[in-house]
Amino acid sequence: MGNLPAERIIPTFPFNVCGVDFIGPLLVKPVAQRRITARKMYVAIFVCFVTKAVHFELVTDLTSEAFTACLKRFFAGRGKSSIVYSDNATNFVGAESELKRLSDMLKKPDENVSAYLASEEIKWKFSPPRSPNFGGLYEAGVKSFKYYFRRAMKNTKVSIEEILTIISQIE
Questions:
Q1: What is the CATH number of domain 6-170?
Q2: Residue 69 to residues 15, 63, 155: CA-CA distances in angstroms?
Q3: Which residues contact 7 (CB under 8 A, 6 or more apart)?
Q4: 139-163 burial: b if 16+ Cβ within 10 Å, else e
Q5: DSSP code at position 60
Q6: Which of 82, 110, 118, 138 has the fewest CB atoms lying closer than 10 Å?
Q7: Torsion angles phi and psi, residue 32, rounded to 5
Q8: pLDDT digit string (tens) for 48-76?
Q9: Minimal CA–CA distance to 24: which of 169, 163, 125?
């Protein structure tokens, strides 16, 4: 068995080195009324590589603006990361059109995301294509989230406030 990367064993503050992945889509009602149709929303999972702590952020859609806002909320609450890892998004190939947009955004971040990362001096590293073992920490977090989320939801559509509460309780 090989040695762990230095980023995973050198003690630093939480989320200095983290991984990010998306969970979803989740069907969420904007308000708790009967006849309002549900919208698709996503959850971004951030996993600290040193402490294995997790953080969840609700993301309204898969646009670069929504993802940049999600990163800003995460950094405001948990502190700025110096290195962020993500998968290469090859697992999204052939999925829904929303996931294709996410795949394109992660493979070639547009000017908004790239400008924000450059201004904050954040390194973004992708795992090699077709190598899910490189993202084991955040993929395990996705599995745990789905396990508890399914038991809490029981196939019902809830409002944004209720889903934020469930996400906080899972965290």
A1: 3.30.420.10
A2: 17, 10, 28
A3: 17, 49, 50, 83
A4: bebbeebeeebeebeeeebbbbebb
A5: S
A6: 118
A7: -85, 65
A8: 988 999 999 998 887 777 887 888 899 89
A9: 163
